[in-house]
Amino acid sequence: MNSIPVMELHSSTENKVKVTQTTCPYCGVGCGVTATVEETVLGQKVTVVGDVNHPSNYGKLCIKGSNLADTVGLETRILQPMLGRKTQALDTRQATDWDTATDLIANKFQQCIEQYGRDSIAFYVSGQLLTEDYYVVNKFVKGYLGTANIDTNSRLCMSSAVAAHKRAFGEDLVPASYNDFEHTNMVVLVGSNTAWCHPVLYQRIMKAKEERDLFVVVIDPRFTATCEAADLHLPILIGQDVPLFNGLLQYLYQNSHADQSFVQSHTQGLDALLESSQPESDIEAVAAKTGISLEKLHLFFEKFAQTEKVMTLFSMGVNQSSRGVDKANSIINAHLLTGKIGKLGAAPFSMTGQPNAMGGREVGGLANMLAAHMDLDNSKHQALVKSFWHSPTIATRAGLKAVDLFEAVESGKIKAIWIMATNPVVSLPNADQVKRALDKCEFVVVSDICKDTDTTQYADVLLPALGWGEKDGTVTNSERRISRQRAFLAEPELAKADWWAVSQVAKKLGFSGFEFENSHNIFKEHAQLSAFQNADISKRSEVENFRYFNLSGLTDLSESEYHDLEPVQWPLIQKGQSESAYAQLFAQGQFSHADGKAKFIATTAIDPVHPTDREYPLILNTGRIRDQWHTMTRTGLSANLSTHKAEPYCETHPNDALKYGLKDGELVEIKSAWGNCVLRAVVSDNIRRGQIFAPIHWNDQFASDARIGKVVNPVVDAISGEPEFKHTPVMIHPFYTQWQGVFYVREGFEHIVKEPIENTVWWTKIQTAKAVRYELADRRRFTQTTEHLKELLPFEDESFEWLNLEDQTAHISHSVVLQDGQLIASLYIAPKALLPDRDWVASLFKRERLSAMHRKALLAGQAMSMGNSEGPLVCSCFKVGKNRIIDTIKEKNISNEKQVTACLKAGGNCGSCLPEIRGLIKACQAEAIE
Asked: Are strands 598-599 and 667-671 parallel, antiparallel or unpaired?
């Protein structure tokens, strides 16, 4: 690689330009990006593009990465420490300084230890932290406070994979690399909408498919964007992965497709597995359990058996389950039986959800782990880490995992909690329980970049953290690749790195070992611990505590070498090590268990903890969408990312919609035994009968009642503690309102309307280029709307010009507010079919002055010409809508997505929309046949 990490340039106009190579802060693909900051007379301009030299993405970015520059503003930031809580009635928060804030934290922690013991303190952290932050907080909690009550939101996405890896391999190891997908002959995507959740890796797989004979299988209850280009879709019943892969294993064994030499030399436990999976030895029984046809099962089993190089990528659909660990192990079992592991193009592959979930695993981020891949319940590992850290008191038993941790907060067992870089009031299951817990907790500290989230309002101390672009350190992606995340923006006001804040508190508690000056100091110590009493695989017999995780080659990095560090995979035993040296782990059949062998894990199928019943007859499945990330605190700020799926919604099958009286596009209420929420119904045959799907992203800042987490049951996997996000029994029914409407207000005026908006019974907020859009609904009678308009549009100054149109018999009310000829706000209340085209209204806010014709059109609620309506947005990069794509497909008789790109550019940048375009082509072709 020849990239220059940071470079300063001067343009011909003498504008100062700074170019920095860094890493995307979103999913576990770990894409490299090039950030350019230009200082102009109008201020700072930031642009972000893919880093063409980074081996994870080679310049490609998904739509979220392409719009990173939209998320680096300071509008929503917390920029100085604050004391006091915020309630609906009162915001008591007051600004303070760091010294006062850290004094208070240290004193409260000391009081808790003296009065209640070490386990009365807890931390809940995040895969959004850099490895250096993660390392320091784990050292502090486990090695100095002496408790393991520190867990991470990575518990919610990949802890089942961690446990499965440890059971099978003896260590938490992803044995392959992205490069393997380009050399395999079969890719099996299990519980992963890869096209939307890991788009850049998906595009690599699709490119490989174009270049050679690559058979792609998708195992998913829904027909997702990922299925569009698949050769085989297995629409499995939710939760039935273990019977499927046990059935595959039995088929492989019975038909002599086992690699006997590999099994005998490098594995143990097959007999117990064969016995436990005996119920799946009958393929008809597997079909009945999984809901997959015999024809499709035969094809899948045969293809897996006959293909030498198979990559099985699994993600949240496997992990987020009360049987997630067994699901992952059942996949690994099939690879071990056939020896499809440790070879180029053949391996099971866990795809993580966050940019540094893997880095958190390296430093022992989970409550049941120690740093450097060592075990918390292993006395020798405890002694090793304690010796290295010179720690006074090291944790000796596993701490509370995420769901249990917040239950302990509510019960009063935990008296103080510090939450970092995560929003558990939205993201955890049974999320209202988290609200109750934090409300009752004696002392809550929150470190965040956002001043107002669902979680920050409960903070007694709110600390301003550095955000992406400001903080400096490393992250590790899903293929074990460490990359630098470099700062290219100045630290705003009093915001500080999370490692710095923790170090300050540690020192005030009298602990040494936290005199870190920068992230380089921390990384060196992290690397040194990985190498401490460790060795290369060739010398594993010489050490008692062998771990594949080993950064020996980075232990003596100088500060400049750390600054310039290029992306590198571990284990890294020597500087300058070949890129391919450990790309495929286990090439020599050496696993991390003491005997060097992998273990087959006996897995059995069991019924869900909470089955459906008459009261809750449907299964709720939750997940991500293409253009949003986690709880939207960043992506929700981007107008470009708010256009594809603008509102919180739930997918239901047409037969279920008919059965429960639902209409496409109308509001529905989802209820479970744990909570309820209100979403927009999307009727689709992409989902099986008896199931509904809802995205996880919306929070109370972007919608009145769309936190799906409060509906999700709190059941967890008994081994990993990972929650069951894919199977919650629910009921669904219409949510009746008197009227619905759409309201736009220009940026800068939002504060005027915030309270009236939040007094409506239902609303959702959508960012557009120059205005904020609200979809509204209320139960007040239409005749009461006039009063409501006055509340909603409090523009009483004489400088505002009002336009009004009202027809109570038709239930129509239109109001438009202008100032100096510029559109300030507009409110439309009408039957749903008569509400205006949203993109058209938003476009008028971009105009400096509206013409008379525009005014008339606005008041009428219809554009002067609606013939060019784009329809729902498909390509966010080039703003190409569904209607234009369909018209072009029909007009030009298009048969593949490349032709659409050639005509409209759609799909020609990040490629995230290509699966949707393929679906539109198929739909048009089917329509033509009919």
From this structure: unpaired
Helix (H) or strand (E) holding 435: helix 431-440
User: 445: which strand partners?
Assistant: 418, 461
Output the pLDDT for position 787. Answer: 64
> pLDDT per residue over 143-171, tens digit each?
999 999 999 999 999 999 999 999 999 99
In the block, tokens 């022992």 appear at 364
Residue type, 779: R
Angle at 79 between CA 73 and CA 80, to 5 degrees: 180
User: What average pLDDT score do residues 285-302 get?
Assistant: 98
Question: What is the rounded CA–CA span in Å between residue 646 and residue 653?
Answer: 21
81 prior amide bond cis, ω within 30: no
Q: Are residues 744 and 725 in the same domain?
A: no
Strands (E), 486-578: 568-569
H or E segment at 364?
none
Q: According to DSSP H, which parts of 547-700 are helical?
A: 559-563, 654-660
Rounded CA-CA distance 44/37 in Å is 7
The total of structural domains in the chain comes to 5
For residue 142, the 8-state DSSP code is I
Whether residues 856 and 906 share a domain: the answer is no
Domain that holds residue 704: 618-734
Specify the pTM. Answer: 0.95
Give yes or no for residue 912 having a pLDDT over 90. no
Alpha-carbon distance of 524 to 601, in angstroms, equals: 37
The structure tokens 């101390």 sit at: 461
pLDDT digits (tens, 9 = 90+) for 165-183: 999 999 999 999 999 999 9
- Burial classification of residue 277, based on how many CB atoms lie within 10 Å of its CB (0-12 exposed, 13-18 middle, 19 or more buried): buried
